[in-house]
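haha ok so turns out i had the wrong file open the whole time. this is the CORRECT one, sorry everyone. sequence first:
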Amino acid sequence: MRIGSSIALIAVGLILALAVNIDIDGLDLQQIGWILAIAGLIGLVISVVMARRARPVVAREAYPPVEPTPPAGPYQDPGARY
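then structure:
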């Protein structure tokens, strides 16, 4: 389950739990709504944790190593060789 589907489950679940007042024999829509909302919340947490673990940060070194050159003075020609 991805982040988008988790948010959709939360939204549908909360709509069923809080906004729908329809009585269907054998179904408690409020209970189903809360179950969907909780499942979406658990899926959202798992998706965020998995997304953070999937992207490790790797420090890369410049190849080949470059030594910094000193800045040229105000009256020196940077291309001149003595």
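The CA atoms of residues 19 and 30 lie 9 Å apart.
again sry for the mixup
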